[in-house]
Amino acid sequence: AELKAKTPAEKQKLMEDLHRKADEAKAKGDDAKAVDYTRQYNRVAERLKVEEHSKKLAQEQMEANERALQQLEQSWDSKLEAAKELEQKRQAVLDKLGLGRLEDGIDEKTPHLVNLNEDPNLNGQLLYFLKLG
Fold it and tell me: Is this structure's pTM higher than 0.70?
């Protein structure tokens, strides 16, 4: 737990200290301390490898998520653009046929036919403007 709070420089210093202490214990002939420091060194080294591997996996996952997000945004933008183009084409066809809605800026006094439907949501949705003359 205390290893995670340390900076990379502190971790490197800890590794060097454990290695130095193990070498000093070997030089003095204290094999028990040398083995203990070597085990500590190996445990810390293994934890650092696991920590580094976890960071690498997290970084790769984050990059993959960012790429996926960019693709989603691009596809959303392209879908939005396609929907706008389709709406413009639809409106052009409706205008050509003389069908439209009052929101299109056509005067309410212009003669027109309105659809009737049992469903109140569909009632009055289509207008056919009669051409003058």
Answer: no
